[in-house]
Give the backbone structure.
Amino acid sequence: MSAPLVRALVVLGALLVLGSVNYSIYAKEQIKRNGEVMYLDLAPVDPRSLMQGDYMALRFAVAAEIARQRRQGNTVSLQLDSRRIAHLPEPGSSGSLPVRYRMRNGQVWLGTNAYFFEEGSALRFAPARYGKFRVDPRSGEAVLVGLCDAQLKEL
């Protein structure tokens, strides 16, 4: 191959990579701006091991329920209560909000498993009881936008 052709292919490859990364960022920003609000209960954890440096490890109660039921596929339909807290629907009823999940190391992964924050502000997030998500109702893609206390007040 000639040098100009190789350069053109490298530039084209770089443009494709940068274009796809920027589209992914744009899509997440659209979900954060326009997605439906959903809260997920944080699973009980030992607060001493929860904080590690500048992030909080997250586990969600509904993820454990999904894993216990060994659901097939990669989308689950969740029911939102009057406060918009998500739960698996009762048997025989249907959920109202589709949410995509992934399996990672045998665990259900709903959007993320960590919340990063500024160094030294761990005490501010210690009372976290819910993860606040924005969800695209068409794709089911969920984006964590914050942590909330027991009264759903953002921390």
Observations:
- The longest strand covers residues 142-148.
- Residues 18 and 142 are 23 Å apart (CA to CA).
- The helical segments are 3-34, 47-50, 61-69, 122-125.
